Amino acid sequence: MENIRNFSIIAHIDHGKSTLADRFIQKTGLVDERKFRDQILDNMDIERERGITIKSQAVTLPYRNKDGVAFELNLIDTPGHVDFSYEVSRALASCEGVLLLIDASQGVEAQTVANLYAAMEHDLEIIPVINKIDLPSADIERVKEEIEVDLGLDSDQALLCSAKEGTGIQEVLDAVTKHIPPPGGSAGGPLKALIFDAHYDPFRGTIVSCRVFSGSLASGDTIRLMSNNAAYRVEEVGIFRLAREPRKRLSAGEVGYIISGIKTVSDVRVGDTVTLDSDPAPEPLPGFKEVKPVVFSSIYPISSEDYHSLSEALEKYKLNDAALVYQKDSSVALGVGFRCGFLGLLHLEIVQERLEREFGQSLIMTVPTVRYRFVLTNGQTVSVDNPIDYPEPVTIDKALEPYIRASIMIPERYMGMVMDLCLERRGVNSRFTYPTPGRIEIQFDMPLAEVIYDFYDKLKTVTQGYGSFDYDLLDYRESDLVRMDILVNGEKVDALSQIVFREKARARALQACERLREEIPRHMFKIAVQGAIGGNIIARKTISPFRKDVTAKCYGGDITRKRKLLEKQKKGKKRMKMIGSVSIPQSAFVAVLKSESK
Amino acid sequence: MQQPGLYLHVPFCRSKCPYCDFYSLANTSLIPDWLEALVSEMALYKGRFGTFDSLYMGGGTPSFLPDFGLETLMHQVQDHFVFVPETEISIEANPKDLTPERVSRLKSLGFNRISVGVQSFDNGELSFLGRQHNARDAMDAVSRVRDAGFANVGMDLIYGLPGQDMAGWFHTLETALSFTPEHLSCYQLTIENGTVFSRMKKKGNLTPIGEDLEEAFFLRTSAFLADRGYLHYEISNFARGREHVCRHNRKYWDHTPYLGLGPSAHSFEDGWRWWNVRSIREYCGALKSGNRPVEGEEALSRAQMHLESVALGLRTREGFAHAEIHDPTARKRLEELEAAGFLLREGTRVVPTMKGFLVAEHLPLYLCGDGQP
Fold first, then answer.
1. CA distance, residue B28 to nearest chain A CA (Å)
2. Residue A590 pLDDT > 90
3. A344, A357, B43, B46: most buried, per Cβ within 10 A?
4. DSSP assignment, residue A390?
């Protein structure tokens, strides 16, 4: 155990986390150059494109330091978005130390600070690493000063490297072995292993990633998941190289996987403790929390005959995403589909993209919403996470909406703009703390509905990327809510309805109509887009018709080309939804929430 | 089924016009090889297609061919194919090529319809369009054709040029009408990809007149010519009476068979369409080695035939057969479009109104869905 190190790399986006991980994998000889694929840890296309890590993964690197001592370095990757903050916390709980990676030209940024705080919360050893020192714009002295002043860390400890060029990698790995403490815990006691990730393998079922804190386990053992007491027989344990590598036993201090006939990832909970049936631990590891969806939206196939195909795709997708919940749903405008619950907006977008890209689905997603509560005049309380289920207004005694505590960390100079943004989003009960000179942490109580769509984007815009944002759910508070409907050429489109705060209804309706005016292509006739509450029209926009599209010439040589164009346009139209005789593109159904045009 | 038409593509021009995307070269040295190849291509189709009732020599600029070229073609065509006695024999001609000698030669060769590439009677516009002739040349050419006794004379005109106003366009139209032509093709300027105009537009040196003016020009042109007794029988084509509708061009719009010979020419017969390679060298090379110079072909599915029938029909006053639309959703859309004034029922036909003509490229999307338009 003395020669094991468990660590993670944390960084602001684009500071080079994945590249550094790749260098470690190369340097330790885990993969030869030929097979090397950039950014090996992020193995999903979406992650690659967006440059973010969605699901955490781990890899065990064999490493011999400069004195010739052999180590096993467990690098645990962490997701980088607020939707997955719980997963991040479990990954960090599995480590003894972190590399805090900072771009030599960008310096300390919002996420650097937020990550540092998360690591401090887990009492981890923190090694600052300045990356990209090869850049002409690198300013190492300034970054060192920021490390001292903004982060309160010892800049003499900071290591210099260029993951891209491969310089300084050895020094970083040596520092991991030297400064990060070996794991504690005894291999003799009852088994306690922390689940920090799980993914689905079509041949083996669920692969559970875990860090063993005490005791040990081997194939043939019977394990218990302490949150629900479910028991499974262990088929295989092992460690992660680039592929799984079976081992006889996983013992205290080690990071690896368990295969034990667990059918779907939904049967395991990240943060849960694994123990042995024969010698159970008296209490689980601290910090377990059941993650619940907070954002809801419906998914419909564009073409109604694709419902079954969508149903199968969701079932398969769900095998690898325990956080997604769904049930059957139906809409007058869109037919039969599914009501889904997500951890947040990014999670929603990932689900949508993966269903479209990996499962070939053509989807319409409706406006995301939170779960409201209504106390009815008959004393009954109903939960509503779908505007279709909004109760008859006369039967509503009291409306409640979920509130969060938003924590926003920013350099002081952005305070005015961030305050304005939070107040505009109905933030109340503000508090301020000053963690380091020049930085401020603002807390607000805010309706969840006000942050689910574009709050984070807005925050990043007003703070030029320096704002970090995190939130905890607080409670339900009384509110004044109405259902705002959208009519297209007089026809109500139920999938575009939203539950909104009454005072903001008109502004929201105008915004939705404006977005629809931009999203719906011109037709041959005039299209009226209206927002309404009950029978009252509160907003209206008009899409003017196009009047001429005919081209002058069509002789023998033009016909095939023109027909092919029509066929292509027809295909495009199939990806739209017909409401009456108006074709509405799929993007319109989510765009209504956007406050600004693209 | 109507009788087929024969098209000969002459891919040569004196110079390339900045708006034109038809295939042509200004290089005359290839004419002998091309002629020889064209005759070999005729041999490939000898005895097929039955009896033709139209022959159309287009381009390019057919009038640019030297006399021996025109003579060879006319003789070879008659050696290889059968025609009805009253065949419509058209040629496209540039005003500059229509010398008195040339006009009488065309007459003696058997041409009975001449389409003169006038484009405009405004010298400024003609130079913008990169034409080699001026307004005087155009008027002289049309007069000569008339004087030579051609009873079927057409003119090609272009309108909707950047900066052009309605008065300027009507001046050109009035001048054209003073010759009482049997046929007028009035093409609204379209910026085609790959042309000089398209490059100018990308650089911001050419601004199209915009949808509002396009619409106004189109409608006023139609109304004006209708008033003078011209039938607006296709988006861009007008005839002084039904009998002067271009017999050959109509075949493209109602799936009548046609055989196109020459580089880039398209042919159609019984649901098959095929087209020749564009390059003259490739065309000649293929025929020299005994191969068909075909670049591509397609067999149209029922759905594609249906889509084309509706789309092509909508470009003409003939419209399409009501029976083409049988799907209940499409029938409903048809009624909506009739109610909205885009289409009209005329017996068994559905025909476009002026409003329908304007959006003729969009209407098929509503009418030819697979349940969902």
1. 23
2. no
3. A344
4. P
Would you say the C-alpha torsion A89, A91, A95, A97 has a positive or negative sign?
negative
Interface of B with A in 208-227 (CB under 8 A): 211-212, 214-215, 218
* Residues constituting chain A: 598
| Alpha-carbon gap: B149 to the closest alpha carbon of chain A (Å) | 28
Going along chain A from its start, the domains and CATH numbers come out as 4-179 (3.40.50.300), 192-276 (2.40.30.10), 295-365 (3.30.70.870), 372-479 (3.30.70.240), 482-591 (3.30.70.2570)
What domain range includes position B142? 5-252
DSSP 8-state symbol, B244 = G
- Neighbour count for residue A179 (Cβ, 10 Å): 16
Query: If you search the block for the tokens 């196939």, which residue do you land on?
Result: A301
Residues B163-204: pLDDT tens digits? 999 999 999 999 999 999 999 999 999 888 889 999 999 999
* Residue position matching structure tokens 């709980």: A93
**Model pTM above 0.80:** no
- Which pairs with CB-CB distance under 8 Å and at least 24 residues apart come from B325-328? B325/B350, B325/B367, B327/B369, B327/B371
Residues A548, B187: C-beta atoms closer than 8 Å:
no
B288 assigned to some structural domain: no
Reading phi first (left if > 0) and then psi (alpha if -120 to 50, else beta), residue B55 is in beta
Examine the domain organization and report whether B65 and B187 are in the same domain. yes
Quickly count helices (H) and strands (E) in chain A: 13, 33
- What are φ and ψ of residue A584, in 5° steps? -110, 125
Show Cβ contacts of residue B286 under 8 Å, excluding neighbours closer than 6 positions.
Answer: B277, B292, B293
End-to-end Cα separation, chain B, in angstroms: 30
The confidence score (pLDDT) of residue A382 equals 96
- Residues B49, B187: one domain? yes
Q: pLDDT confidence of B295, banded at 50, 70, 90?
A: very high
Q: Residue A562: enclosing H or E segment and its boundaries?
A: helix A559-574
Closest listed residue to residue B254, CA positions, set B305, B309, B299, B307: B309
CB–CB of A567 and B362 under 8 A? no
* Residue from B338, B362, B363 whose CB has the most chain A CBs within 10 Å, to mutate: B362
Given a cut of 90, whether residue A112 has pLDDT beyond it is no
Distance to chain B for A332, nearest Cα, Å: 17
Establish if B329 touches chain A: CB-CB under 8 angstroms. no
User: Tokens representing A343?
Assistant: 């951890």
**Contact criterion met (CB below 8 Å) for A585 and A521:** yes
Place of tokens 């499409």: B330
